[in-house]
Amino acid sequence: MNSSKSDLPSRLMLSLEPWRNAAHWRIAFSGGLDSTVLLHLLADLARHHSLPALSAIHIHHGLQAAADAWPQHCQSACDALGVPLQVVRVAVQPGASLERAAREARYAAFTSLTEAGDVLLTGQHRDDQAETLLFRLMRGAGVRGLSAMPAQRPLGQGTLLRPLLDVTRAELETYALAHQLSWIEDPSNEDRQFSRNYLRHQVLPRLTERWPQAQASMARSAAHLREAQGLLDELAQIDLAQAATPSEFHWLGLPSLALAPLATLSAARQRNALSHWLEPLTRLPDTDHWSGWTSLCDAANDASPVWRLADGQLHRSAGRIWWLSGDWLRVPAVSAEWRDPSTALRLPNNGRVMFSGQTPVGPLQIRYRQGGEMMHLAERGHRDLKRLLNERAVPAFVRGRLPLLFGGEKLLAVANLPGLDGHGQGGWKLHWQPTDEDQGLR
Q1: In angstroms, what is the C-alpha Rg of the chain?
Q2: What are the structural domains of the chain?
Q3: What's the pTM value of the predicted model, to 2 decimals?
């Protein structure tokens, strides 16, 4: 935009109008130019308008010695404006990309602090948007990645807003100088070994020298790609609605889809639908890794293929695909005697079991399938457990962790499977709650 600094407050106010009824506005305050201007703008607007409660959050990564002085600088800036500040220290996990690790630590903290009805405001601007588009283009990103940073998205229990995405860094600098603001210059921002800094200092200046409107054009392209991604998301929802049929094993509490409706789609629509479904569950696979999906679909009917992804596994079993993570990927430990059947028994890495109805007489023990187990059924005599599980089409990944109730060496019940889960005359049933975790979000 070519607007002057004088209308920056009114432009910000206009973009934040839909969020005037939020419970709380929190500013992600690094102390740098962008967040310093955003903090000053919002504090000034709060003096003239009725706005939600305003506060700031400073994330201290502790990655360089200079950063130790930044919390005090941020505190002084907030005190001068009458804005409460919360300083949060995070541990950045070592890895190949320090930039990415720091960002993940920062947003993990923001996510945990953003409560219901809260809005977290960050200071990214149009120059940042152009950098993001170029950076992702160099990494071979698809439509979702090239749509760059959205102006808003869910975060924690609230919403993340980027109200300055249509504002240039030059406009922010003009505002800061006009209001005599002081801000932190992060020394790492000059380090050209970081990809974004290389783009900022080496690439974008050359582009804008040749094409003065380059950043505005890139922001416009990102907006077009966001619109295209919106259409792809709508198509994914249509395709997933066909596959989101209920499973008779709904009590597993696992995200799952029927495979047959997906298999009728073109390969591109399969990837689109599955990406949409997987996005809240795991970091999405890159292009080369999608061969794992093809292998899973093409495996023999009697196979139980697994596609391993960054944050869990996709299993194919019983005509469906299932998302497994957390405790589902840990081997359940053999539990001890169930000494008090009147209370639930917690199973290491495998949830808990409990009885309904009359509690059977002990001694009792929960075990897991080893192979060769037999079970006596009133009308069918002794039957092999493997055959009983086959008859009920129990998914393969469940079979080794289904709690089996033994009285001595006699198999008395298999949790949660109708007809096998209790004793009709005894008036009791064995119930299994597979996990206490939320399998729906990563």
Answers
A1: 28
A2: 5-225 (3.40.50.620), 244-324 (3.30.465.60), 345-433 (no CATH)
A3: 0.78
